[in-house]
Amino acid sequence: QKEVEQDPGPLSVPEGAIVSLNCTYSNSAFQYFMWYRQYSRKGPELLMYTYSSGNKEDGRFTAQVDKSSKYISLFIRDSQPSDSATYLCAMSAGGNQFYFGTGTSLTVIP
Amino acid sequence: GAVVSQHPSWVICKSGTSVKIECRSLDFQATTMFWYRQFPKQSLMLMATSNEGSKATYEQGVEKDKFLINHASLTLSTLTVTSAHPEDSSFYICSAGGQGYQPQHFGDGTRLSIL
Questions:
Q1: Cβ–Cβ under 8 Å, residues B77 and B105
Q2: Given a cut of 80, is residue B45 above it in pLDDT?
């Protein structure tokens, strides 16, 4: 079983839709959770960083962590064509070891 | 803040050439830097973790003599692909940070094409 599971998609939504991206994990020691956005031929860009359970909001983006279910989500409100990218979840128990999902490819259609 | 610069962004060279890729943390000190390889439409594959002033830790299956990593300062790590061959062609990405509770911050990657 992989440490982190993420549906690769592809996911295609109309402009203005609410997008929900999700990851599940198996290691209950994970405490730090990240979402990255990666455009084609670019490095991943940190979008959201959360610690332990709960919600965090930043503009149109909301990150949710449910440690009891080992499930994290990223919601994008009022999606824009510029949100079209691959979204990677990542998590860590602390220290130097990070575990990445395989990424979900998102296309927002104008 | 937390900007990581990677250079060059794209390099094309002949088989047998050695290629050096630089990764710099511009506005913070990075005791730890990471090097990844990414194939098209695939996720990141960790190659090695480098710590300033010490030898890098390579992931299983990554040839140490092929991919030389140097992390001589708190703001610079380099990856040298020695005697590169077409199968080494890939997208290489570095990141910095990731210590303790800090997230990793990535460079923009280097597209390496070996002819």
A1: no
A2: yes
Please give the DSSP secondary-structure letter assigned to residue B86.
G
Helix (H, G, I), strand (E, B), or coil: what is residue A63? strand
Those residues whose C-beta lies under 8 Å from the C-beta of residue B54, and which sit 6 or more positions away, are: B71
Please give the Cα distance from A110 to A108 (Å, whole number).
6
Tokens of B108: 């923009």
DSSP 8-state class, residue B102: P
Asked if the Cβ–Cβ distance from B93 to A43 is below 8 Å, we say yes
Tell me if A42 and B108 make a contact (CB, 8 A cut-off).
Answer: yes
Q: How far separated are the first and last CA of chain B, in Å rounded?
A: 37
For B71-85, how does the pLDDT look when each residue is reduced to its tens digit (9 = 90+)? Answer: 888 899 999 999 999
CB contact under 8 A, B101 and A44: no
What is the band of B98 on the pLDDT scale with cuts at 50, 70, 90? Answer: low
Q: How far is CA B115 from CA A41, A59, A97, B16, in A?
A: 19, 45, 34, 9
Q: Which of B4, B43, B50, B71 to mutate to test the interface with A (most CBs of A within 10 A)?
A: B43
pLDDT exceeds 90 at position A52? no
Q: How confident is the model at residue A30 (pLDDT cuts 50, 70, 90)?
A: very high
The pLDDT value given to residue B100: 64
> CB contact, 8 Å: A87 with chain B?
no
